[in-house]
């Protein structure tokens, strides 16, 4: 079965109902010895200086706010919400290579720099993979996990093995293509979907999508293809919730549920949306995500009492 980046993107399911939101302005945070992050930080909700902090980790090929802008406002009513662009994405740290372990270390370094007290780390798709690694590499830094539209292992099906191995081989070839040619090949479907968003959100969203190069996308896909948390996922010992995107053709719901079953005590929350539901079907995704974060926060609070 022949699969391409375009083929995967073609499976995104555009829906017109996207909330109009105020998009917070980012500010710079230096991580000593690592680089510079531009973060969005809502601060604590009014009257709740001790509210838990939620760190949002975005999907592959996106930016932090492009993945999460439809839900940040609602989350910020009850939590301090922090998001940023991962390495090689948007305005993220530029390094010699893209590695998921470095992305996880960046999260831990940001937690230290902001002096956060065991925040909840929420990851969508690639962000969910990084969130798993944050626990693996820095288990004492976080209070809980919310994993959405993600998995513990890839390259399971024949076409995935072929595709993800092909991505690694093709990365060298990408250097020989012009940026414009690669963008036309890999981003046309996403562009058409984002153009359905209400103006002026659609232009902002398109600019956010274009902020990550096709080369970075290929590197990230290759790294995700090598991810396998199955040997240690059962050791996760913080409150965890898994949001299942039930109409997901990219990461099938059954695989997401299988991942959840490997995490002791994980609670499952269902969202009737596809893989791009965080943006294009936010009316279905947001309630499940909010319930999952509330769920984890309540369990953290009960343990602390």
Automatic annotation (TrEMBL):
SUPFAM superfamilies: alpha/beta-Hydrolases. One of its GO terms (cellular component) is membrane. It comes from the Bacteria. Residues 52-278 form the AB hydrolase-1 domain. Pfam families: Abhydrolase_1 (PF00561). This is Pimeloyl-ACP methyl ester carboxylesterase. GO terms for molecular function: catalytic activity.
